[in-house]
Amino acid sequence: MSTETAYIPSQSTLDSSVALNVEATLSNRALSDPFFIAATYDISQIKPYQWMAKRCFDLLASSLGVVAILPLLLIVAAAIRLESPGPVIYKQTRVGLNGKTFHMYKFRSMRQDADKMLAELMEKNEIGQGMFKLFNDPRVTRIGKVIRKYSIDELPQLLNVLRGDMSLVGPRPPIQAELQHYQHWHYFRFATLPGLTGLWQVSGRSKIKEFDQVVKMDYQYINHWNLWLDFKLILKTFPVILGGRDTA
After folding, report:
1. β strands within the chain, DSSP E
2. pTM here?
3. DSSP three-state, residue 110
4. Do the beta carbons of residue 73 and residue 106 sit within 8 Å?
5. How far, in Å, CA of 217 to CA of 197, rounded?
6. CA-CA distance, 36 to 133, in Å (whole number)?
7. d(CA 1, CA 38)
8. Interaxial angle between packed helices 142-149 and 70-83, expressed in degrees from 0 to 180 and rounded to the nearest 10
9. Cβ(213)–Cβ(11) below 8 Å
């Protein structure tokens, strides 16, 4: 794995041979255990000291973040409660580092029966079978449109960061049902903790329609990961959020 310091690559510079590079490391074991490829590239094992520093930064930044935005969290929670029935926080099982599942938290931005409607909307998916994104999702509430536009619905995931399920920066965690569409090389993205933001989020997000392209960005992030790259991605996230750009 490369240890060079990497700036955030543009889509045009993404490695077109990612699948071949990852598949070349596969063994017979990976055919029965697809997460084997993630364990092989696990950056917590390859760069343990930087990884510990990453975890310390996550704990400090997320703790300060929760305290700083507490008034906003209370206002959003009240608005969701007033608009529609159902829980304020939506909890969903996601897949994280090396295939470990966890409950990811979000502010509820959809109708209470959103999960039941997913099957009939799958044919309208705009990003490929490995991930679901629909720009004008009919399940989204009025408050939901606002908090999704500015990624406010993701703020409860700071609790996931505190719990160690997620990091501030990393690939987005999929739901288990999406794994049935994964190719072997796609499992490379589980070689690090999932994150609130990452290369995909600051590089076009909903404008990127191919799941393979998303995974190639995850490959670039993991293959070139260092703390400085995390800081750059966090800094690039703020203008994206404040501008409400490329949301779905």
Report:
1. 89-95, 101-107, 167-169, 195-197
2. 0.82
3. strand
4. no
5. 12
6. 28
7. 13
8. 150
9. yes
Token output for 140: 């989204």
Measured distance CA(159)–CA(209) in Å, rounded: 29
Please, what is the end-to-end C-alpha distance for the chain in angstroms?
Answer: 33
Q: Give the type of residue at 119.
A: A
Q: How many other β-carbons are positioned within 10 Å of the β-carbon of residue 146?
A: 16
Residues with Cβ within 8 Å of 73's Cβ and at least 6 positions away in sequence, in order, are 66, 155, 156
* Whole-angstrom distance, CA of residue 24 vs CA of residue 117: 39
Torsion sign over Cα 233, 175, 128, 109: negative
Q: At what angle do helices 48-68 and 227-243 cross, to 10 degrees?
A: 30
Q: Tell me the torsion sign for CA atoms 160, 163, 164, 167.
A: positive
The residues with which 92 forms a beta bridge, in sequence order, are 104
User: What tens digit of pLDDT does each residue of 21-75 get?
Assistant: 666 666 566 567 889 889 888 999 999 999 999 999 999 999 999 999 999 999 9
Query: 23-41 burial by CB neighbour count: b if 16+ within 10 A, else e?
Result: eeebeeebeeebbbbbbbb
CA distance 158 to 100: 18
